[in-house]
């Protein structure tokens, strides 16, 4: 607080990864302090350095960092998730594509410690198929096979947000801005993968084949992405998410409802 001349610290949220406070600058403007928890400071710090590198272009602005504390722009608008859940999903997809376009603009001197995308997928490749529900093991095999095929044909690598979903994009007076990147480096097509299985609480929407195809069309048209590669990463990431949830003991019903239709769209692309 002294370092950045801040006043009136108000606790806003505690997550498994951080504590977040709203603070005032000079008694006028709001800002945020995000204090990373020690157990995850390595991964979260990598994401924070990427967020800082974006320079506020398509993402929340990081003003400064010190140790495990990030001093950044305060965002209190609604999320793209709220728009999608309230009947404005097509608009949300367009906005998400715009955010990706801004994040993927060429910038020099990217952070040196970004996590390779192939390494991010290691949990998918290491999982024992018997950990999956018996009726879904064919889905696991498809996801792992598609992922291997994608990595066997590499694309030019760029810095990736790595967790770009609807509720990680917030409205502001500067437009829609991303928060909470993971800090990856790899194929740009992966950036939109998580959007296909989001927003939370809208499984019926996410599993709709028309919506899956409309999203793939939008990302191909607006970002110049290869449509089949987009759908491949969407399916592979959904499988990866199942592997993570199985380890953590979380339900996997949402991904298992979406995944068959993602794989069907991939096969038809």
UniProtKB/TrEMBL annotation:
GO MF term (any one): aminoglycoside 6-kinase activity
EC number: 2.7.1.72
Keywords per UniProt: Kinase, Transferase
InterPro entries hit by this protein: Kinase-like_dom_sf (IPR011009), NH2Glyco/OHUrea_AB-resist_kin (IPR006748)
EC category name: transferase
Biological processes, Gene Ontology terms: secondary metabolic process
Keyword Transferase: yes
Protein name listed in UniProt: Streptomycin 6-kinase
Organism: Devosia subaequoris
């Amino acid at each position: 607080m002294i370092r950045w001349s801040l006043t009136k610290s108000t606790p806003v949220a505690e997550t498994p990864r951080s504590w977040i406070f709203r603070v005032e600058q000079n008694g006028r403007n709001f800002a945020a302090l995000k204090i990373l928890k020690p157990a995850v400071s390595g991964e979260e710090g990598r994401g924070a350095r990427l967020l800082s590198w974006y320079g506020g272009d398509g993402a929340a602005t990081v003003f400064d960092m010190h140790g495990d504390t990030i001093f950044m722009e305060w965002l209190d608008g609604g999320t793209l998730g709220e728009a999608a859940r309230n009947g404005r999903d097509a608009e949300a997809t367009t906005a998400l594509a715009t955010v990706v376009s801004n994040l993927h603009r060429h910038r020099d001197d990217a952070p040196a410690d970004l996590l390779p995308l192939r390494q991010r997928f290691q949990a998918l490749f290491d999982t024992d198929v018997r950990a999956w529900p018996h009726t879904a093991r064919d889905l696991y095999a498809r996801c792992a096979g598609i992922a291997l095929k994608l990595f066997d044909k590499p694309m030019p690598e760029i810095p990736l947000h790595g967790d770009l979903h609807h509720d990680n994009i917030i409205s502001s007076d500067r437009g829609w801005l991303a928060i909470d990147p993971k800090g990856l480096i790899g194929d740009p097509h992966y950036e939109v993968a998580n959007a296909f299985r989001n927003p939370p609480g809208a499984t019926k929407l996410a599993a709709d084949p028309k919506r899956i195809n409309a999203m793939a069309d939008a990302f191909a048209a607006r970002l110049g992405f290869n449509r089949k590669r987009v759908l491949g990463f969407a399916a592979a990431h959904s499988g990866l998410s199942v592997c993570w949830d199985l380890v953590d003991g979380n339900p996997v019903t949402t991904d298992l409802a979406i995944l068959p239709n993602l794989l069907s769209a991939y096969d038809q692309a």
